[in-house]
Automatic annotation (TrEMBL):
Protein's name according to its UniProt entry: ATP/GTP-binding protein
The organism of origin for this protein: Streptomyces sp. R28
InterPro entries assigned to the protein according to its UniProt record, in alphabetical order: P-loop_NTPase (IPR027417)
Amino acid sequence: MDADEAFTDRQAQWSALTAALMAHLHNVTVPGFDVEDLEAPRTNMLVFHGAGGIGKTTLSRKIESSLARGEDRPAQWDEPDFPERLLPVRIDLARSAGTDFERVVLAIRLALARLGRPLPAFDLALRRYWEQAHPGEPLEEYLRRGGLAAQVGQTLPKQLQSALTDVAAALLLPGTVGSVAGEVTGALVRALRERRQTVRALAGCARLADLLDAEPDLDTLSYYPHLLAWELARLPAAARIVPVILLDTFEDIGDRVHRDFERLLQRLVWLMPNAFFVITGRSRLQWADEALQGQLDFTGPHAWPTLVSPDAPSSRALPGAGQVLIGDFTPEDCHDYLTRRLSRDGRPLIDSATRQVITTRSHGFPLFLDLAVLRFLEIRRVRAPRPADFDVAFPALIARTVRDLTPDERHVLRSVALLDSFDITLATEAAGMAHEAAALRLIERPFVLEHGHGTPLWPYHLHGVIRSAIRSADDQTDDRWSPRDWEQAAGRAFEALGERWRTAPAGDRLLLVGCLRQGLRLAGDFHLEPRWLVDAAWSYVSDSVWEPLAPPTVPEPTAPPLRTPADALVELLGALARRRYEHREHTVTRLSAVADTGLLPAELAEMALYYRAKAERDLGRTAASRQILQPIAAGDGRLAFAARRQLAHIARTAGHFLTALAAAHALGWPGRHHRIRGDVLWAQGDMPRAAAAYEAHRTEAEEFGFAGERAIAQAHRALAMAFTDPGVADDELDLARRLLTGHDERATTLAAQIAVLVRAAGSRRTDIEDYARLLRTQVDTAGINAARTSLELALGFHHAVCGDRGQVDAVLARLQRLTLGGDYAYYIEIVSFMADLPLPSGRSGMTLWLDGEPSTRARWHSLVTARRDWHSTR
């Protein structure tokens, strides 16, 4: 069996699909399967990935036609007897197709129109969304113009209208009202919450009322597939159908930094556990990678057990893992090849354990398999081969790879083996050549691949097994490199990356992160001096985005010791990035350890100390934070203004508002003066001036190109506006969410979530306490003391508006415990002001408010009375 035979008919891929689909059909029919369970792991997908032009789109189309019309199935493909009726829906995500998320949802619903019946829960939500997102544009016209209605004509609009009419009739709405989706859904929500018998058919969908009640924007639309899944689950047996949704050209939805569209598509897959998804694209899906937490809604091996790489360290992949490489051999092909290549009496000579090692080491590369078979025969002449004999890189692999390359091409090949990804210019510079001809010739070789996750900057990478062999094998070729040659090449590649970053336009975050990832690896592997990495590290931390720079470090105590400045820098930046989703106590430990190594240059050691001080402050240990910050603030280093800002924050948390305000006037933009003013004014209950200060900070952040600071300013502005005007707060919160997209700012995200609670304060919604409990869990996980106290203050506002004295007292008791160290103790007074209660014993005169206690009390209490008045008019 050779490579051409292996990949002509894609029989192995068809077998993988049918097996996964059979398992899915079994899973969705077992007792206890619940489409409304949003916590269970998802196994409802299969991913085919490979290099461009390898035939992924052809495979996707062939799968669609084979599932829809059995006669189109290739002769080599078996004919499985699926226990359920399947409905294939193929969607091309290529940029040239102009597909957006809205069209994806419409394409799925259009396919389901063949059922010949409305799906009321989803159809009502979709109709309401359409009226909001496309005012004055009939759905029929949109479908006709976009070519989406070619096969089903006007069926879908009629079904949507039928659902609207039926629900309006059930609610006894007049005809003029019953034709407007917004009016019908509003009436339906009220009926669902009142548990009227007239809507008992829809009452079984637990989240229908909440989804219909939400603002019908694109984000809300992305949750509507949950309604579609619920409708499919309740179809009668005669009409039951399982959608098989094929998403092709997945690499065109964006890149590995900008994941907005990917987030929506992942949500679609998660919310339709009874549908099966077949994704084809150039790269593996990273959804099982825990490092992406915060960039996508659902990440990690528990959420996506079939997407875990089977050969990853500590892999928890399920048998029959759901990512299959197209182009090289799949693991199944490798096992089949090794089983049939050497056999005796119909039994394979290579045992299962050895086949597994060879398969893992080969990366599916056919030449590696051939060399492994030859090695097996050679060893077998002397003794029985063992699996460990094949955990090697083959020198012959290099010789056979480079034998037809020119000397210049060989030189470039070895140079790019140092890089995770590269382009023509970077390959040429790493090789130290004056001309690009050799690099241009090299990328035409089959072992140089193109991939999506290399970013548009560096589209090429070496096949894994070739790169591993070149880097680690005992190279016996005539022009092999000495250790000195490798060091010089590493130095050239390192400097080329640095020059690329230095000459890039300001604010090119994608290039910065790419250069850091590769530069840190080279510096660590070859003990290079950090040089340009120092300035790049400062740029990385300046905007609070915190993309992962390296795989997660090995948990202590097995983590390797830090030996070089590059090792220490990797650990420093990794600790800063991971603090967004680790408890601050762990951040303090990691930053203390890296600072104590003495490996970092002085200014980077100061960076470690500064962020340790921030973590200490988040934990409520302000004395320790102040002790670290004071010498930094007194100096003239890069973090002097930031340290002075942190000291101003510490003064504010202690209730020293005049000190904090005076500091703000002297700090200017480097010390984020408007943000400090906003925090001080917010504490006084002066929300209009606080919101104006945050807006000024947001404007300055935009002018200076600091996207992270812009998101922070908007989240705090939204929190201020949530106290004063719930209607305006909705728009402010929406802007905050959009600005936070792609920014792993945990404290700021929590502030925005608390603003949602403040905006709902005083309402009689039954889920407010549930939301508060969820937030409290997230806050405790983060270990951020400011968020703990802010959450309690928000709850105090809610209970004060509701006039619930018992709950207000409970909030005050919790604040007493949380503020024993003195930080945010004035929140106790604020909650008392809100509820118009006398101050607890010993608190009177403890806080020096900017314009006195009576005025501050009046402002906070007026916010409560204004909210009561607002609710009374609803």
